[in-house]
Design brief:
This protein is α+β, with helices and mostly antiparallel strands. The protein has helices at 2-17, 65-78, 83-98, 105-108, 121-138; strands at residues 30-36, 41-50, 53-62, 145-146. The longest helix is centred in the last third of the chain and has 18 residues, at 121-138. The structure holds zinc ion. The site of zinc ion has 8 residues, from helix 2.
């Protein structure tokens, strides 16, 4: 169990130190900002949609290790996937962050690294910020997302 915890922590540390897809997409067709006032996390999600396919996905911004690692894991996982897959994964991650043991960790893969977050209710919004922002961007919302 401790090995698993260490492994999970390593994933968070790695994705915070070297976030994947941390850049602007110049020809993005969806750009949306998200804020988590509780912690001060602030990010912008860039999305290039081609029909139902997420051709490219990236983010920029600043925040705590959990918010950055979650966004990094999200972009890595969903690039090249469909909107339907993104919606399904959003539900899985939501289950993982809010309910102990309900999520399908096989389905989540590396994202299971966020499983420890539910033990710290104040950090759940850090981990879910990028997901809520992506969901709103996919729904073509132009209203910045706030976790409050
Ligand atoms: Zn945070």
């Amino acid at each position: 169990m401790n090995v698993l915890k260490d492994l999970y922590r390593d994933v968070i540390v790695d994705h915070n130190r070297a976030p994947r897809n941390f850049r602007k997409i110049n020809d993005a067709n969806r750009v949306l900002e998200g804020f988590n006032p509780l912690c001060g996390d602030k990010l912008t999600v860039y999305l290039k949609l081609d029909g139902e396919v997420i051709k490219d996905l990236s983010f920029e911004g600043s925040g705590c290790a959990i918010s950055v690692a979650s966004a990094s894991l999200m972009t890595e996982r969903l690039k090249g996937r469909t909107r339907a897959e993104a919606g399904k994964l959003f539900d899985e991650v939501h289950a993982l962050l809010t309910k102990d043991g309900m999520a399908d960790t096989d389905q989540l893969g590396k994202l299971a690294a966020l499983s420890g977050v539910h033990e710290y209710p104040s950090r759940v919004k850090c981990a879910s910020l990028c997901w809520h922002t992506l969901k709103a961007a996919l729904a073509d919302s132009h209203q910045p997302v706030s976790t409050e």
